[in-house]
Amino acid sequence: MSAPASTARPYAPEPVTAGGPTAAELLDFALRTAADPAVVASLPLDPEGRTWIRLDGPGGSEAWLIGWPPGTGTGWHDHAESRGAFATARGRLTEHSLTVRLPSEGWRSLELAPDVDRSRRLDTGTGRAFGRHHVHEVLNESPTEHAVSVHAYHPPLPLIRRYSRSGPVLHLEHVERPADWQ
Questions:
Q1: What is the three-class DSSP state of 10?
Q2: Are the C-beta atoms of residues 121 and 73 closer than 8 Å to each other?
Q3: What CA–CA distance (Å, rounded) separates 123 from 89?
Q4: Rounded CA gap, 118 and 108, in Å?
Q5: Given CA atoms 126, 131, 136, 137 in this order, what sign does their dihedral have?
Q6: Which of 3.30.310.80, 3.40.50.300, 3.40.640.10, 2.60.120.10 would CATH assign to domain 23-104+111-180?
Q7: pTM greater than 0.70 (yes/no)
Q8: Is 134 in contact with 175 (CB distance < 8 Å)?
Q9: Predicted local distance difference test score (pLDDT) of residue 18
Q10: Would you say residue 162 has pLDDT above 90?
Q11: Which of 68, 129, 154, 167 could form a disulfide with 85 if both were Cys (CB 3.0 to 4.6 A apart)?
């Protein structure tokens, strides 16, 4: 097996711009990294659950290479104050997102207005960038094919808020801190 990607440096670190890399710069990194067959091949895949390894992101960002077995997903979540991007390196992912910014504190349940849902498919070699407080879920809807993707966030994730959804009602379920996923 190759060396863990946490020590790999697929690209030289980029200089930190004022406020760190932009969402467009994060997307550029994710697309370039997703196109690198050696980096993608370094991820061990598990048929039962998602796998991930940390990468060196640009300008002090946090980056991950993630494997998605058939039928897996993230559930609804956001990345708090971080902006981010992700790109599909293998397979196809589906993203469901909301077009509204939710209040960051002071609520447990919200009823969403009609027409705030968006969906997009991200085939191999495609990606998407997003701003702070972006609420979404990412899924590998294939019944047979593993998917692999590259994700980058700046500032590094301070927390992830997890939500459940029942029709138009979104419920804040819990908050994860970096110690929960690193």
A1: coil
A2: no
A3: 8
A4: 22
A5: positive
A6: 2.60.120.10
A7: yes
A8: no
A9: 55
A10: yes
A11: 129
